[in-house]
Amino acid sequence: KACITEQEDKVKVISEGQAKIIVRGQSKVFYNPVQEFNRDISVAILNLIAEDVLNEQIAKNETSKPSFRILEALSATGLRSIRYAKEISGVTEVIANDLSKHAVEMIRQNVQDNKIESVVTPNHADATLFMHQHRNEFDAIDLDPFGCPSIFLDSAVQSVKNGGVLLVTATDMAVLAGNSAETCFVKYGAVSLRSKCCHEIGLRILLQCISSHANRYGKYIEPLFSMSADFYVRVAVKVRNGANKCKYTTSKLSMVYQCVGCGTFTLQPLGNCQEREKGGPKFSVAHGPTVNSSCEHCGHRHHVGGPIWTGPLYAQQFLLRLANWPGLDALGTAKRIRGIVTVMGEELDTPLYYTVDQLCSLLRVEAIPTITIRSAILNAGFKVSYSHCKSTSLKTDAPASVVWDVMRAW
Ligand code: SAM
Asked: Are 297 and 264 in contact, with CB atoms under 8 Å apart?
C-alpha cells in the first residue's frame, strides 16, 4: 500500500509501488493518494500492452532493438512516470511532461532520486503543442488532467501510433453526470443526463468524445478497459488507422431518451452499419427505433441526452488477461482491482442499467430483494448482470416492458 511520511521540515516522502518521491510542504504540485488505484490499474494495463507491442515488433523483426515509449502528458510530481519506468517490463522511454516549471523541477529531482534517468525524460511543454509536434510517436499516452481531458484529445489521437493506446481520466463528474448538461455538450459534444445510471452515461460520453476526435483523422477506437470509480472515470482505448472503419462509428453511438416520469431509457442508434463477410464493407444509414414523444409505460415526456458510445466498454479477452496478470498481487490495490475486473468481466454488453431502489420507489413498494427481481427476469428468458458503476445496478437485455411487468407482478 502507498505510504506518506511527513518529516519535521515539512518534506513528505511518498512511497507508492516501486517509486519513492518527495513533495515539499509548501509545494503546489499536485499529488492525490486516492489515485493510487488509478495508477495501479494503469501499470497493469500498460504491462499487457507493452508485452503485445514488443512481441509484435520481435515477430515482425521491425527494429533491431524493440521499443515501448510512453508519454505522460500531464505528469505533476512524476510519480506515475517513475512507476511506469520501474514497473512496466520492457519499457524503453517515458516522457514525463508538465506545463508547470516548478512541477518539472520536482520531476527532475524525483527521477534522479529514483535513479531512473536512463528511462524517464522530464519535459517542460504545453502538452497539446508537444503532442502536435510528435505525431505517431508513442505506443501509449496517459492523460490525467484536472477535470475535463477534451482539450488534449485532438493532439493525443494524432500523437499515438497506429495500434497504440490512450489512457484518459476525467474527473469532472458533475458535468458528465448531468448536473450541467449544457457544459457537457460544450466540452464533450454530448448532452449528459441526470439519471440513476449517470456514471455509465459519463463513461460512454467520454468514449464518444475520444472516438469523435479520432475519426477526424481517419482513426477509430477500440475500448480495452472503461472504469467509473471514486470521483472519476478512466478509459484505455486502442487507436487504429482506418478511414473506412470510421464509417461504422455511427452504429456505435446512440441518443438516450429518458422518461421524466418512470426513468425508463430508450436508445436510438445513430446508424446501422453491417460489415458484410464478403464483398467488402457496406455502409448504410438506417434509423433506429422511433421514440414516441411520450413514454409508452407512463405517458410522461422524455429528456434527450447523448450521443453516447453504445459499443462495447471492454475487450473481454483483455479483462481476462488483466485478472490473470502475474504482477497483479504486487500492487497495493490488487484486491480492489481483482474485484472490479471480475464484475466487469461478468457485465452484459448492454448499455445502461436500472437500479433496484429506483424501480421500487417508483412503484412505491418496499425494497424487493435484488435476487428476486433478477430471478424473475431470468425466468422470463432474459439475461441480467451488475454494472461495476453501481452496486445496486440491474443490467438486463430484457425490454423495459418485461422489467415493469416483473415489478408489477410482485
Ligand atoms: N498524472 C499525475 C499523477 O498521477 O499524479 C497528476 C496530474 S495533475 C491532475 C494535472 C497536471 O497537469 C498538473 O501538474 C498541471 O500542471 C498539468 N497541466 C495542466 N495543463 C497542462 C498543459 N496544457 N500541458 C501540460 N501540463 C499541464
From this structure: yes
pLDDT at 26: 63
Count CB neighbours of 360 within 10 A: 16
* Ligand 1 atom closest to the CA of 80, numbered from 1: 4
Residue 36 in contact with ligand 1 by CB distance below 6 A: no
Please say whether the beta carbons of 322 and 46 come within 8 A: no
| ipTM > 0.90, yes or no | yes
Query: What amino acid is encoded at 264 in this protein?
Result: T
Q: Are 72 and 121 in contact (CB under 8 A)?
A: no
Enter the DSSP assignment of 250.
Answer: G
Task: Identify the three-state secondary structure at position 248.
Answer: helix
**10 falls in which pLDDT band (50, 70, 90)?**
confident
Phi, psi of 115 (to 5 degrees): 50, 50
Tell me, using a 6 A CB cutoff, whether residue 76 lines ligand 1: yes
> Which residue's alpha carbon is at the smallest distance from atom 17 of ligand 1?
74
Give the distance (Å) from ligand 1 centre to CA of residue 130.
Answer: 14
103 CB less than 6 Å from ligand 1? yes
Q: Is 138 exposed, middle or buried (0-12, 13-18, 19+ CB in 10 A)?
A: buried
Under 8 Å CB-to-CB from 80, ≥6 apart: which residues? 39, 42, 72, 96, 142, 144
Query: pTM of this prediction?
Result: 0.94
- Close Cβ partners of 372 (under 8 Å, ≥ 6 residues apart): 410
Domains and CATH numbers, the chain: 3-243+310-346 (3.40.50.150), 354-409 (3.30.56.70)
Helix (H) or strand (E) run with residue 386 in it: strand 384-387
Grid coordinates belonging to 358: 429506483
